[in-house]
C-alpha cells in the first residue's frame, strides 16, 4: 500500500513540482472562439500551498482542470514532476465546490470509492480512511449517509476521499464556497492542519481574498477573461496561522494590496 511520492524526482532535480509554461486555452465555437487562458507562466514548489484568486469567469477552474488532466491546453505545456500532463497525473487528489457524494453509500463507502475504482483491496485501506475521518472531525459518522450530514460535514467527507490514497498534489476548486462563514473558517483551519502534517502541494482556487491570504504561501491574482496572471504575491506570515491573524496589520496589508488590484480592474468599487 506504499505510495510512491511525486515530489521525489522534482526535488532531486531542484525544479518545482508543477510548471506552467505559456499555457493558452481557447474554446472553439461556431459563434466565435473564446480565449479562457492567455500566457500562463508560473510554478508550484514542492509542498507549497498556492492560492489562485480572481473574478468569476477568469479561467481559475479551467487552469485547475488543465492541471488535473481533465482538459487539454490549446497551447503551452503543463508539467508535473517534469512530465507533461496528458491525463490525470499519478498521486492526484481533487476536491470540487460540490461534494459529489453518492447518496446511497455511507460515509466510509464514499471515502473508499477511489480504492474500489482502482480495484484494490478495500480492507487494506479502511484503517487509513477511519483515521482521516477522525482527523477531520467525523469520528463515529462512518456509517451515516450523506443526507444525514451538514454541508460542512459533507465537504469533510469529500476531502477525506481526496486524501485517502495520500496524493502528493491536491487540487481544490472553491471547496468551501457554498458554506456559511463559520463553517468555512473551521475548514480553513482543518485544511491548514492537514496540509502542514502531510506536506502536500496544494493548488487552491477561491473567490475569497481573506481565504487566499490565510491559507497561501503565495497568492496568484488573475485578470478578467482572458485569464492571465496579473500579480503573484508572497505571503510572509508565520505558521500555523489562527483566525486572529486576520486582525493583524500585516494580514490587512496583503488583503488591501489584492483588493486594490480588483479595484483597478473595475471588479470592486473603491467606496
Overview features:
271 residues, alpha/beta, six-stranded mixed sheet, four-stranded antiparallel sheet
Describe this structure in words.
The chain is built from nine helices and ten strands. By secondary structure, it is of the alpha/beta class. The strands form two sheets. It has a six-stranded mixed sheet, sandwiched between helices.
State the major sheet.
6 strands, mixed
Shape: globular
- Oligomer class: single chain
Question: How confident overall, as mean pLDDT?
Answer: 89
Structural class: alpha/beta
Give, in spatial order, the strands making up the sheet with the most strands: 6-7-8-3-9-10
Classify the beta-strand content into a percent band: 15-25%
What value does the Rg take, in angstroms? Answer: 19 Å
Order of helical and strand elements? HEEEHEEEHHHHEHEHEEH
The tally of helices reads 9
Low-confidence stretches: 1-13
Short description:
The protein has 9 helices and 10 strands. It is of the alpha/beta class. The radius of gyration is 19 Å and the shape is globular.
List the helices and strands and how they pair.
Layout: H1 7-13, E1 18-27, E2 34-44, E3 49-53, H2 60-67, E4 75-80, E5 83-84, E6 92-95, H3 107-111, H4 113-117, H5 122-135, H6 151-163, E7 169-173, H7 181-198, E8 201-206, H8 209-215, E9 218-222, E10 229-234, H9 249-264
Parallel strand pairs: 3-8, 3-9, 6-7, 7-8
Antiparallel strand pairs: 1-2, 1-4, 4-5, 9-10
Helix pairs in contact: 8-9
